[in-house]
Design goal:
Blueprint: H1 3-19, H2 32-38, H3 44-72, H4 74-90, H5 98-126, H6 129-160, H7 171-182, H8 194-197, H9 205-222, H10 224-235, H11 241-260, H12 262-266, H13 271-291, H14 295-309, H15 312-323, H16 329-354, H17 361-384
Transmembrane segments: 12-33, 45-65, 77-95, 101-123, 135-154, 166-183, 209-229, 241-262, 269-288, 294-312, 332-358, 364-387
Keywords: Cell membrane, Membrane, Transmembrane, Transmembrane helix
InterPro entries: MFS (IPR011701), MFS_dom (IPR020846), MFS_Efflux_Transporters (IPR050189), MFS_trans_sf (IPR036259)
Length: 393
């Protein structure tokens, strides 16, 4: 392999690995009615946990995966996690006992924690400067687009059998030999220039915590669409599974498109400015969805919200890579993965908590839009005061 072709193969592995992760829990969403019928005697909470348990395990185990990657190396751990992802995920195709199925989902969640933490860490190890910024946008785009593809494939396979979507997890095993051949273990000293490393020789806990918080909130907002939009559409009389699936895919599709363009957007805006833009556009989409009285407007709202929310992951990873010393990069991105998926896990909990104070799901979307407007103002103020230095990043 030439140097250029090897770089292309490396990027392909990282993109495929990242694509499998973010919507890994939602792959089986279309099969939930069938799962519920098969396990009709099981408590409803267990059926719900089949969907949400992986996100909880990702939240709990991502920091550990980051530490292990820093301690024992990226490549060996990634190979192990790809194997576990494929085998534990696909085992649902064969399992008849609900408790055993939950155990396999928990193990699959641990694997996702490792895959996403290590894949993002390797981006920082392998690339720098403008190439890194472009690839982070491409990575986020691939993850969002993968969500569109995998959810629709899961829907197609669920028409055959509720067990069908579990076969999609075999992608982890299929990727393993390619990753084993292509990836190299990074050296402990990367190619970052001293000029980039010097200003951030120590981990900035305050900025890192803020980046984590924004990641959590953005994922909480994003998950409003796969978790709540079907119920909002049902209130409006939409019953077609195909129509609901298309609406669910819209936010992920537009998020993919804007993430793909992140490198060009970042060339003209600072990290703080991108956050302000993201919160503002997301607010507009949430307002449109909350005000919608028909299917078309709800879909437009989801699409607009996706344009804003698609900026957050590449922007946060870009920021973290600039302010994180190489020696603790694995741990920091393990924490990032944890908070990112914690936002997914708490999204329905937050909605359940505020719903008694509101009259309908429409008002939930409107309230979240107001929250986004508030956060846009807060970040804009921080960018001009306490985080003024980050406005140059």
């Amino acid at each position: 392999m030439t140097a250029i072709s090897h770089s292309t193969h490396t990027k392909a592995v990282l993109l495929f690995a990242s694509t499998m992760t973010v919507m890994s829990g939602a792959i089986i969403s279309p099969a939930l009615p069938g799962i519920g019928r098969f396990y009709a005697d099981a408590p409803q909470v267990l059926i719900q946990l089949i969907l949400t348990l992986p996100a909880l395990m990702i939240t709990l185990f991502s920091p550990l995966m980051g530490y292990l990657a820093d301690r024992f190396g990226r490549k060996p751990l990634l190979m192990m996690m790809l194997s576990v992802y494929g085998l534990a995920g696909a085992s649902g195709f064969l399992i008849d006992d609900v408790n055993l199925l939950l155990a396999s989902r928990a193990l699959m969640g641990v694997a996702v924690a490792g895959i996403l933490s290590i894949s993002t860490t390797l981006v920082g190890d392998y690339f720098s400067g403008a190439e890194r910024v472009r690839f982070l946008g491409l990575q986020s785009s691939a993850m969002a687009l993968g969500g569109v593809i995998f959810i629709n494939l899961g829907g197609l396979l669920s028409d055959w059998s509720w067990r069908g979507p579990f076969l999609l997890y075999l992608t982890g095993v299929l990727l393993l030999p390619y990753a084993l051949l292509v990836l190299r273990e990074p050296s402990r000293v990367t190619g970052e220039s001293a000029a980039h490393q010097a200003p951030f020789a120590r981990l900035d806990l305050g900025r890192t915590a803020l980046a984590y918080l924004i990641a959590m909130i953005s994922m909480m907002m994003f998950y409003l669409f796969p978790a709540q939009l079907p119920f909002l559409l049902a209130e409006q009389g939409v019953e077609s599974g195909l129509a609901i699936g298309a609406a669910l895919s819209m936010a992920a599709l537009t998020a993919s498109l804007v993430s793909f363009c992140y490198g060009r957007i970042k060339a003209h805006l600072s990290v703080m400015s991108v956050y302000v833009l993201g919160f503002s556009v997301a607010a507009a989409g949430l307002f449109i969805t909350g005000a919608a009285h028909g299917y078309a407007m709800a879909v437009i709202g989801a699409a607009v919200a996706g344009l804003g929310l698609g900026l957050f992951m590449p922007n946060t990873t870009t920021w973290l890579m600039r302010i994180t010393p190489e020696r603790v990069r694995g741990r920091v991105f393990g924490g990032f993965t944890s908070t990112f998926f914690f936002g997914q896990f708490i999204s329905p909990i937050v909605v359940s908590g505020i719903s008694p104070w509101l009259d309908s799901l429409r008002e939930v979307y409107l309230a979240m839009g107001l929250l986004c407007v508030t956060l846009a103002v807060v970040v804009a103020v921080l960018g001009r005061t306490l985080l003024k230095a980050d406005s140059a990043l």
